[in-house]
Each structure stands twice: as structure tokens, then as C-alpha cells.
């Protein structure tokens, strides 16, 4: 299997969740969608789909 470099932006994920939830009739707060984005990131880490790298 080949390796590719992927950048995960939790702010982008948060915005995506916000718009998708609005389309489905929910009214999320900014804090709620930020939490969902963080949970999604943690899920991807736990499933070894991504590796977290720290910027120097």
C-alpha cells in the first residue's frame, strides 16, 4: 500500500458539520461543531487512519 500525505483541518471539519447539520434541520452552535470536529480527528487517530504530526 502506498502512503499519501493528508492534512486534516479541524476548522474545516467543523464548518462542514455545521452546514450539514443545518441542512438536516439542526441548529448547532460553533462550540458544538468544534467538539464534533475534535471527536472526528480523535476517531481518525484511534483507527490509525492518520498520524498526528506537530509543527515546529
TrEMBL record:
Xref: InterPro entries: YozD (IPR025545)
**Origin: domain of life:** Bacteria
Q: Pfam families in the record, alphabetically?
A: YozD (PF14162)
> What's the name of the protein?
YozD family protein
Organism annotation:
Lederbergia citrea
Amino acid at each position: 500500500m502506498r502512503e499519501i500525505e493528508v492534512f486534516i483541518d479541524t476548522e474545516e471539519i467543523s464548518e462542514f458539520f455545521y452546514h450539514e447539520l443545518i441542512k438536516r434541520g439542526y441548529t448547532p452552535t460553533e462550540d458544538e461543531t468544534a467538539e464534533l470536529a475534535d471527536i472526528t480527528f480523535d476517531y481518525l487517530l484511534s483507527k490509525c487512519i492518520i498520524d498526528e504530526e506537530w509543527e515546529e
